[in-house]
Amino acid sequence: MFIERRIERHQLPYFLKVFNRTNDKFMGNLGNVSETGLMLISELPLLVGPVFYLQLKVPAEDGTYQLIDIDANCLWSHEDATPGIYDSGFRLKSVPPEYEQLVNALRGYFSFRPMSASA
Predict the structure, then answer these.
(1) Residue 5: is its pLDDT beyond 50?
(2) Strand partners, 66
(3) Fold of 10-109
(4) Phi, psi (degrees; rounded to nearest 5) at 28
(5) What is the structure's pLDDT at 64?
(6) How far apart are CA 93 and CA 56, in angstroms?
(7) Element (H or E) spanning 98, and its range?
(8) Of 2, 17, 23, 88, whose CB count within 10 A is highest?
(9) CA angle 36-80-12, nearest 5°?
């Protein structure tokens, strides 16, 4: 069980959908991301331990979706502060380049950067 977080996590103000890659069933929404993991927000608790075959469906500008396939172990799952909602933490077994790009894009998009002073 993890006591300390070693990698900074980046909160998302809205959610990206996560599906079971094997049967294309909706599992929940992406809650936060790091370089090697993610948190899933769902309506059901998840089994801790096994590998889940997940697929992120990231909307593209042309109305299509970029599909990002990831294999990840569920490390923990517990009820959220909101009754009937569960948070589950995953560690990716390997990090595909598309996931790295997503994390970097989200970090850039949602980060606050100091603006240069105007004269």
Answers:
(1) yes
(2) 58
(3) Thrombin, subunit H (2.40.10)
(4) 165, -165
(5) 85
(6) 15
(7) helix 97-110
(8) 88
(9) 45
